[in-house]
Design goal:
Layout (H helix, E strand, L loop, with lengths): L2 E4 L8 E8 L2 E10 L2 E6 L23 E3 L6 E3 L5 E3 L12 E4 L2 E4 L2
Antiparallel strand pairs: 1-9, 2-3, 3-4, 5-6, 6-7, 8-9
This protein binds FE2/S2 (inorganic) cluster.
Amino acid sequence: MTKICDLDDIEPGASIGVTVEIDGNPKMLIVVRQEQHVYAYINSCPHIGSPLDLQPGKFLSHDKKNIMCSTHGALFEINTGHCTFGPCKDDHLEVLPVRLEKGAVLFAG
Ligand code: FES
């Protein structure tokens, strides 16, 4: 079972970036916590494939309601990864399935 991080590593309503080895390959991830829910996506923008965070771990828009790509400002729903605004509108971040167990965020794939 691959551990991604501890729930307590992420402030409620905030995000972090982590790199985790999955199936033998290092993957850069976006991890967002909303209360007791955690959402994880591959840190690659569907627009041109670059990481979303120009400042490491800063993935959220100013109002904290969306994941934002710092490169060209695309906005993504936190709970689905669906792009609602920007050059990749209606595309998706790649979801990484996760589950919570005893305060740890685990890869559920
Ligand atoms: S690289 Fe993300 S919006 Fe262009």
